[in-house]
Amino acid sequence: TIPDADNINHIVVFMTGSVPFPDGFGAQVYFSWPEPNAPPTWLLLGHLSNEKPSAIFKVSGLKHAPNTVIDPMQFGQQQFSHLAQIGLSIEPLFTIQQSTPAIASEPFKGSKFAEFTQKMLDNFVNYLSSFGITQAEMTPTPNETFLPMSKMQT
Fold first, then answer.
1. What gap in Å lies between CA 104 and CA 129, rounded to an integer?
2. Which residues form the Hikeshi-like N-terminal domain (predicted)?
3. CA-based angle 60:20:16, to the nearest 5?
4. Can you give the pTM of this predicted structure?
5. What is the Cα Rg of the chain in Å?
């Protein structure tokens, strides 16, 4: 169980390495948000296998995802809970490969990273500019280094 589930964004699941899966098997990883008036609803996040012993899953966008819901009673009779839960189902790799996670993982896109970097640097320059004063307003401070804003805005 995971307390304070509304404040999490990602879940990390990994095998310890001490006991591998049997040949041809892996684990489906499921996640259940707390529902105060309903039994748990399990969402498929992805899988683990001997070839992929760890994974990071983004769960912040799953709160109201209606797709890829499995039978709420698949993991046995559950009591109502206000804690998020992680479920693992050991299955043949053939079955796992045919399953579709609730949110498909997107491959890394360099353009998104470049866009983020540009926005971050723009905000950084704007923040530093808020402390700007003219040379006439400066008081001599020998221990302080000043950078000309014109050099940062190029």
1. 41
2. 1-104
3. 55
4. 0.56
5. 24
- Is residue 57 a contact partner of residue 45, using CB atoms and an 8 Å limit? yes
| DSSP-derived 3-state class of residue 143 | coil
Distance CA 129, CA 151 (A): 12
- Each residue's pLDDT, cut to its tens digit, for the chain (154 residues) gives 777 777 788 888 999 888 999 999 999 999 987 777 777 788 899 999 999 999 988 887 776 544 444 454 555 544 444 578 899 999 999 999 888 786 655 544 567 778 888 888 888 888 888 888 888 888 888 888 877 777 776 5
Q: What is the DSSP letter of 84?
A: B
Tokens 């479920």 correspond to: 87
Domain ranges of the chain: 5-97, 110-152
**One-letter amino acid of 25:** F
DSSP annotation of 135 reads: G
